[in-house]
Amino acid sequence: MMGAIVLLHRWLGIAFCLLFAMWFGTGIVMHFVPFPSLTEAERFAALAPVARTEMRISIAEAVAASGVTDATRVRLVQLSGGSVYIVSGPSRVRAVGASDGQDAALMSADLALAIARDHARRRGLDAARAGIVPLEDYDQWSVPNGFDRHRPLFRIALGDAAGTELYVSSRTGEVVLDTARGERGWNWAGSVLHWIYPTVLRSNWSLWDRVVWTLSLLALLAASLGAVLGIVRLRMRGRRISTPYRGWHALHHLVGLAATAFVLTWIFSGWLSMDHGRLFSRGELSRAEADVMNVAPDWTAAPSFDRQPMAPSVREIEWFAFGGQLYRRDRSVLGVQTLAMAGNASHEEFLSAGEVEGLAARLANGCGTPSVLARNDGYPAQSVVPGAPVYRVRCGDLWFDIDGADGHVLQRLDASRRAYRWFYSALHTLDFPVLMAHPLLRDVLIVGLCAPGLVFSLTGIVIGWRRLRSTFAA
């Protein structure tokens, strides 16, 4: 039995030692440089004030013209071509001109370039040498599934010192992603390698999912067998721990023992990052819950709602359904908004606990009174608007976290999903509340734990290379 364990660990170790080293090294990089994205602050900073004079059609007319029959949200933004309604449903998004109701899908590369230049100017970026870069359906930075509803994308290189590139949606005309040269470079040494994320593989999500899940499981098996062997081969001489090995094998044994707890929990939690519903729930709304959240309102029920006065500085207006009511949300500053309900003359900043409680009663039975999520909660969720409340509603063993700014369900936490939060996120990223409150300590711990894992992996590479060389030289 022990001989089989030795052989299996040896050859799995040879097969995966490079992968282990890559995961530990790139994990450090990823902690400091995340995968490229357009933050809400960046998106909002580039919005221009909405031109009220261009609003010549109603919301109901815009929804009808979009063809999105299950529309649940409509936003009004100002683009280079004029004011545009962005009509969104559960599965697709379309843009409609606010002045004429015509399809505002972006077909012109010149207009995409103009939109990118305006976006860059408002963010203080140099776009004097901006130009279109050919882009097919996917590239390395636009490969995530979240961009599917915006494809094909226009990619614009600003030609600035930072090497900034912007991606413009052909469906809505909005900038949906930005990257910079340094960010891209570090991500080649971070996320792309860590997630095994080359475009050719990641563009087929199902294949990528199966490949990375299988590799992670085999790596976990290799590490587990190594831990068993490491403990069995341990020797005690008096009060001192010793190893029967010499040289690189001894270093591999002792460093492996010292790092065993972290290596096993980190590889295990990394494997769980690819769970996607295999062992734990996905945290997604059930069909019945989604039907409640995605009820399309009667957009003709409040024909004057889109004609109400708005401040001249408003940079985005959104109409959305929540709990059977239609709301309008005006945003002028990133962290400030005005919220109004159709048929109600009063204005608030965010949804109230009572309004959230009314929706929760439709989602599930036995729901309690919503509570505002604490900053240091063990199951964190963050509003799209800085400073906005996130309400947690407990419906027995089922929890919902709802954004008080725009009514989105941020998290659905059943017992399985709550367990997953600790087995995956806490163990893999060390986002324990006490460490999140002390980010420098968390940084030191992540680097300090990954570094021995990297050293341990490098010793495995040396041992593996020597084994292969002696095997094939014989």
From TrEMBL:
UniProtKB keywords: Membrane, Transmembrane, Transmembrane helix
Keyword Nucleotidyltransferase: no
Residue spans crossing the bilayer: 12-33, 211-231, 251-272, 444-465
Protein name: Peptidase
Record InterPro entries: PepSY-ass_TM
